[in-house]
Every structure is written in structure tokens, then in C-alpha cells.
Amino acid sequence: MRVLRQIKSGDEIIQLAIRLALLTFLLYWSFVLVRPFIPILAWSMVLTVALYPTYNWLSVQLGDRPKPAAVVITVINLAIIIGPVTWIGFGLIDGLQDFADQLGAGTLAVPSPPDGVKDWPIIGARVYSLWDQAATNLGAVLGEVAPHLKPLAGPVLAFASSAGVGTLKFIVSVALSGFLFLYGPRFVAATRRIQARLMAQRSQDFVALAGLTIRTVSQGVIGVAVLQSLLAGIGLKLAGVPHAGLLAFAVLILAILQIGSAIVLIPVIIWIWATKDFAVALPLTIYLLIVGLADNILKPMLMGRGLSTPMLVIFIGVLGGMLAHGIVGLFIGPIILAVAWELMTAWIQEDQAGVILPDAGSDGEKLVAKD
């Protein structure tokens, strides 16, 4: 009898191992199939969470009609992406391709100052001299390091091509988010049930905190950065600045990293005054200064509740997202990493001292108002 029991026990272990192996294989293969669509799904969910209060308000204004509200928001988002975003995106691709060509040919150089700089009152001659010396010295340095920069031409071209693919991913994500608006409450309710299984205590607070983090980072960091770069790109295009799309993309990166757009806009303003008439340079300067300072006004309004996510986390999310998923990862990376950071911090604080998690407020509960 003991031998029979041992044999039966051994057979059960083998069957269990086979089942686990099959389940692991199915999960892995499912992940392989879904992996190309992960950035699209992630960005569509971020858009849904970020814009759900607006969708909910619009649905009420339309007489509690959720489908027309979802259609209106989706059409507006598609118009923004297909319009100004694509316009700036093509400028970015052209600028990156030109930059890659210069890297490959070893002809990367710093432009010399225009002759009109000399005519500036009081400071013209001094600025022209400093600019000319900087262009000459930097040009010599770039000439020496140009052979070492040639291998970077390939990755730059690859990133330029990913920008075009990224635009298509954005369009698909926006279209998918239009459907997710209608099923948002059900998804959140299902997420809370899963959280309750994994973490019975205070699971709803963690779900609310995740939603609050996504909404705050997507609106206060990503949203402001995108708006600032679009407005800057429009101004740069109107001013005829070379590689306006590439400079607008630089504004986007600096704004997401909380560094500020002054690094890009101040040299551009100097170039405008050096090449344009006073009647053109003055309004462009005022416009670009307003764009550069817009984040100081918009971020406190959109991030009034604030989160403690360090900028290093945002920085790593930007770089990691770009390396992992291209242009789409630039936006998804910092949001996902910020959510992970906030949840981990809240979990540690709760475990150590029983600290109550931040309340998501009425906006955080709108997404789960009905099941």
C-alpha cells in the first residue's frame, strides 16, 4: 500500500509539473503575441484615465449620453494628433535625418553669426565677436570628434523612423481610448477586485492612488510639455527657424524633464533678432517668452494636489521608455514609473506607520462611479 501511495503521489507531482509547464508556456506565448501592442494599450489606458473627468462632464452636458461624448473627445484628440503633432513630427524627422547625414559625413558644424548682429546698438560688436569665436572654437572641436560621432548616425536614423511609426501608434491609441471610455468603470471595478484578492487591506486606496498619479503626471507633466512644445513649434515654424521640428522636440524633452525650455528658446530668440526685422522679431520674442513661461502657470494649476515623485524617476522613465518603445515610450515611461514609485512609497509608508494614502477626491472617484 505504501508503494502504491508513493507511485500515486509521484504521478500527481508529474501531472502538476506538466500542467505548470503548459501554463507557463501559454502565458509566455501570450505575452509574445501581445508585446507589440503593449505601448498602444498602455497609452490608450493613460488617455482614458487622464481624460475621463472631461468625458464624464461632457456626457452629463449632452444629457447623459456617453457614446456621443466619447466620439467628440476622440475626434478632438485625433484632430490634434493628425494636425499639429504630425506637422511638428515631420519637421522632427527631417531634422533628425539631416543631423544623421551630417554625422555620417563628418560635416557637423556650428553656424557663424549673421552680419546683422554687428548693427545691434551698444552690444552688437561684442556679441558678434563672442558668437564668431564660439562658432570657430566649437567647429574645430566638432571637426576633431566627428569621426567618433559617425556611429551615432544609424541610431539617429532609426529613431527618426520610429517617430513616424509612433505617430501611427498614437492614432490607434486614441481610437482605442474612445472605446475604453465606455467601459472604464467596469475595468476599474475589476482592477479593484483583483487588488482585493492580492492585497485585502486598503486595496481601493491603492487603485485610487494609481489613477490620481496617472492623471496628475499625464496632465501636469506630459500634457503641459506637449502643449508647450506644440506652441513653441508653431512659433518656430512661423519664424522660419531651421529645424523647427527638432527644436520643438528638444523643448518637449526638456519640459518633461522639468529642466525648462530656456536652453532652446533663448538662442532662438537671439537668432530671430539677428536675422529678422524689429517688427517681426518683437512679437515673436513676446510669443516665445510666453510659451517658455507657460509651464510656471499651468503646472501649479494641474498639479495642485501634487505628488512626491522625484524628477530622477521621471528622467529614468523618459530615457527607459524611449529605449524600450521609441517615441511612444517617451510619454508612457515616466507615467508608468511614477505610478510604480507612488504605489511602492505608499505601501512602504502604510506598512511602517499606517499612513493614510492620499485621497483621490471626487475626480478620482468619477472613474468608478458606476459598475
Characteristic terms for this protein:
371 residues; mainly alpha; 11 helices; 83% helix; disordered C terminus
Task: Write the SSE topology.
Elements (H helix, E strand, L loop, with lengths): L1 H33 L3 H24 L4 H40 L18 H26 L3 H46 L4 H37 L4 H13 L5 H14 L2 H25 L8 H43 L7 H6 L5
Q: Indicate the low-confidence ranges by residue numbers.
A: 355-371
| Strand residues, percent | under 5%
Number of strands: 0
* Count of domains: 1
> Can you give the mean pLDDT?
75
The gyration radius over C-alpha positions equals 26 Å
Helix content: over 70%
SS-derived structural category: mainly alpha
Please outline the major beta sheet. none
- The sequence of SSEs as H and E is HHHHHHHHHHH
- N- to C-terminal separation? 55 Å
Number of helices: 11
Shape: elongated
What does this molecule look like?
The protein is built from 11 helices and no strands. The protein is an all-alpha fold. It has one domain. The longest helix is centred in the middle third of the chain and has 46 residues, at 153-198.
Brief characterization of the structure:
The protein has eleven helices and no strands.
